[in-house]
Amino acid sequence: MSVRVGIVGGGMAGLAAAAFLKHEKELGADVCYTVLEKGERPGRKLLMTGKGRCNITNRKAASKLKEGYHEAGNYIYKALKAFDPDSAVSFIEEILGVPLKEEENNRMFPVTDKAKTILDAFEKYIGPESIVTEFNCEDVDIDDDGVVLTAEDGRRAIVDVVILACGGKSFPATGSDGSGYELARSFGHTITPLVPALVGVDVASEDRLFTAAVSGVSVSAGANLYYDSRKQAATAGDVLFTGRGVSGPAIMELSRDIPRDIGQRDGWIEIDFAPYLTDEDFDEEFTKLIDSKPDTKLTTLASNYVPRSVAENLGVRAGVTELYASGTVREKRKAYEKEIKHLTLHIENAPDYKDAYVTRGGVSLKEVDRETMRSKLSDRMYIIGEMLDIDGVSGGYNLQACMSEAFIAVKNILI
Ligand SMILES: Cc1cc2nc3c(=O)[nH]c(=O)nc-3n(C[C@H](O)[C@H](O)[C@H](O)COP(=O)(O)OP(=O)(O)OC[C@H]3O[C@@H](n4cnc5c(N)ncnc54)[C@H](O)[C@@H]3O)c2cc1C
Predict the structure, then answer these.
(1) Tell me: the pLDDT tens digits for 257-275?
(2) Contacts of 376 by beta carbon, 8 Å cutoff, 6+ apart
(3) Distance 110 CA to ligand 1 centre (A)
(4) Which residue lies with its CA nearest to atom 19 of ligand 1?
(5) So what's the pLDDT on residue 110?
(6) What order do you get walking across the sheet with 230-241 strand by strand?
(7) Can you tell me the mean pLDDT for 18-38?
(8) I want to staple 310 with a disulfide (CB 3.0 to 4.6 A). Which of 74, 123, 131, 306 is the partner?
């Protein structure tokens, strides 16, 4: 008799699982499968990925790629090796018929530059008959018939094996509102603390005067996160200033380390616009510059390190906008240097899930077998995708994780 597989959630992880099951069926496996998606259509988040272009994977070797999954790197390595980015590219190009192209930092996109091309191809390959929409799964139960999946409206699906692929809590408007965690919890799974990750940060109103003044400017810089006066995390890369605060890859990277109660505690992000120089070396270099150009405005000299608009607005913070090099006293120079090397932006509130690209935390990895994605608490349950306590850096890592996990789950189901 066919193995019946029910996949709860029609995001990247669920769609990938269904596509791999279809492929195995074409190769002769006796299996039937259904995606049960609570929304009116699957893949709503997928359509938003890569700014609508879908950065579907990152063509690095699995051994390098695993470094982008933080604490979960070793855990996910098995899955990444079993279905690596090259395998993903082959599957998408040859089986789904979507040509891909490589961009900076090994990021892969569809040639059409449209996420819809990827979603349409998955849906077409899986087949509309295998995707049930508006099925908000509220209960998973195991009885003599098998695994019983019950929707909010009372509809039921009975399967032999369930794959939970309900996503995390980020961008809840796309359907991933965290309700999937309850399904896992009902089987005894632990959910590790959840944090919005890969998200921009709002800063306090007095610091927003600066960020709003240079809104849209992106600068390569060092960025450190402080909480209760202690350094919590450090990164480097592009920092983008916005009307509300800071964003860009370096800040998004830090966001997973922002404690939820930071709004009530003293927390800030410190930006270093010259991270390649120590404070002492910077002071020496800047002092020499000041001495060599007495008739130049201090803010013009700072343009050696930061874009002009940033130099001007850091000058406002340090109170040096009208100063010429010749008239610069030590105290003013030091104040300006502090803004350039240690720009301190206080964090108003912890970021919100509604803006976060991914959720840090999720179903504890201790309870899911990394070779198969099978729950250690139920033989008939697999858990994949963002529901798990795995979050990757930006650049195609998170979608690749979904595909790799789906692949090993399907392989194990069909053994
Ligand atoms: C704006 C944005 C841009 C991004 N860009 C990229 C990118 O370019 N590259 C990249 O690698 N990653 C990117 N990510 C991250 C990536 O999109 C996610 O990590 C990934 O899509 C997660 O897939 P998933 O299938 O686990 O969950 P989701 O895509 O969230 O899908 C879960 C699905 O399950 C459904 N569901 C939930 N609960 C139930 C239930 N009880 N019953 C039935 N259905 C349910 C939801 O409706 C949803 O459709 C981006 C994220 C965002 C928000």
Answers:
(1) 999 999 888 899 999 999 9
(2) 366, 367, 368, 369
(3) 18
(4) 398
(5) 98
(6) 201-202, 245-247, 230-241, 218-227, 267-272, 343-346
(7) 97
(8) 306
pLDDT at 210: 98
Separation of CA 387 and ligand 1 centre (Å): 9
Is the minimum distance from the CB of 49 to ligand 1 under 6 angstroms? yes
Sign of the Cα pseudo-torsion (385, 386, 390, 394, in order): positive
Q: How many Cα atoms sit within 13 Å of 292 on the Cβ side?
A: 7
Mean pLDDT (the chain) is 97
Give one word for 279, left, alpha or beta, with left for phi > 0 and alpha for psi -120 to 50: alpha
Q: For ligand 1, what atom is nearest to the CA of residue 138? A: 41
Q: Which among 415, 404, 334, 413 is positioned nearest to 73, based on CA atoms? A: 404
Kindly report the pTM of this predicted structure. 0.95
What residues does each domain of the chain span? 3-194+357-413, 201-346
Q: Which two tokens stand for residue 389?
A: 């306590």
Which is the closest atom of ligand 1 to the Cα of 137?
A: 42
Among residues 106, 82, 108, 110, which one has the least CA distance to residue 96?
110
On whether the CB atoms of residues 149 and 139 are closer than 8 A, the answer is yes
End-to-end CA distance of the chain: 14
CATH class of 3-194+357-413: alpha beta
* pLDDT attached to residue 401: 98
CA of 106 to the centre of ligand 1 (A): 22
d(CA 288, CA 277) in angstroms, rounded, equals 14
Residue 397 near ligand 1, beta carbon < 6 Å? yes
What are the angstrom distances between the C-alpha of 384 and each of 7, 15, 128, 151, 347? 10, 11, 22, 20, 33
